[in-house]
């Protein structure tokens, strides 16, 4: 018989075997996409690094990025106090994104207290937060000691603006190769990693390492000692001094990140398709 009834095509696919069927969707035997770019993770990472300068420049010229940077620049130059500066959404958007902390945008009170901490006081907030990114950022500008002088200058503003455009570009790369922004950021920090605690205290490092090692994100709810053991039992952090090891580790991470993203997307898409197709059969 040359033509299948429509409900049989839905269940089993076409007679030639091409196309995904409802049963393929249920049992996971359908065709799988090789990825939007058609590149391997290693190729995507290499190309991103090769094209970074020109791509960041192009990103900085995008209207939304230009607007954000202009608003940041105006807010910085017009600020009369550090508190005023850090309470401005335009400042926090660019400043935190530029420093790899876009996930903290909106926590104005925390940011103000952490970034104005007295770094010489071991009990100050920046020195005691488990997320060590706050301490690093506080050290970079040291608002408590220097006030606005550390940021109200052309060099600092230009540096932050470039870092912001870079962060936006990296995030855009994730839409093609999941996890690429983290891989790029990790590579720039890898040689400075000296301890497991340093990894656990940095969201980007934590994400890359736990994903590459197959450690569930729920490990974050375990005691610190358990988290340390989960990583140290599988990884010698001194190996991050070897560029070749970093390269292979990042490839491992990108493969895992891509697999996780594909599984998540496939689950959502397949279940929607399953519902629609099933309705068609039952009508």
TrEMBL record:
It comes from Rhodopila globiformis (Rhodopseudomonas globiformis). Gene3D superfamilies: AGR C 984p-like. Pfam families: DUF1217. This is DUF1217 domain-containing protein. Residues 33-54 have a biased composition (Low complexity). SUPFAM superfamilies: AGR C 984p-like. Residues 33-55 are annotated as: Disordered. InterPro entries: AGR-C-984p-like_sf, DUF1217. Signal peptide: none annotated.
């Amino acid at each position: 018989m040359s033509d299948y009834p429509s409900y049989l095509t839905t269940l089993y696919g076409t007679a030639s075997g091409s196309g995904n069927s409802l049963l393929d969707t249920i049992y996971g035997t359908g065709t799988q996409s090789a990825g939007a770019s058609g590149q391997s993770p290693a190729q995507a990472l290499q190309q991103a690094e090769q094209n970074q300068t020109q791509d960041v420049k192009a990103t900085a010229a995008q209207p939304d990025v230009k607007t954000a940077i202009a608003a940041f620049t105006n807010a910085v130059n017009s600020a009369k106090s550090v508190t005023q500066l850090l309470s401005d959404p335009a400042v926090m958007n660019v400043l935190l994104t530029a420093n790899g902390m876009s996930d903290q945008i909106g926590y104005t009170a925390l940011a103000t207290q952490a970034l104005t901490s007295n770094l010489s006081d071991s009990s100050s907030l920046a020195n005691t937060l488990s997320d060590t990114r706050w301490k690093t950022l506080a050290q970079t500008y040291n608002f408590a000691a220097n006030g606005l002088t550390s940021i109200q200058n052309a060099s600092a503003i230009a540096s932050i603006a470039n870092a912001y455009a870079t962060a936006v570009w990296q995030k855009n790369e994730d839409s093609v190769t999941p996890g690429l922004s983290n891989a790029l950021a990790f590579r720039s920090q890898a040689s400075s990693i000296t301890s497991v605690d340093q990894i656990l205290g940095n969201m980007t490092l934590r994400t890359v390492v736990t994903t590459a090692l197959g450690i569930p994100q729920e490990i974050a709810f375990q005691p610190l000692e358990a988290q340390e053991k989960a990583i140290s039992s599988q990884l010698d952090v001194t190996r991050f001094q070897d560029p070749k090891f970093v390269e292979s580790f990042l490839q491992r991470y990108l493969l895992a990140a891509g697999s996780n993203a594909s599984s998540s997307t496939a689950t959502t898409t397949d279940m929607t398709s399953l519902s629609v197709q099933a309705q068609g059969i039952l009508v």
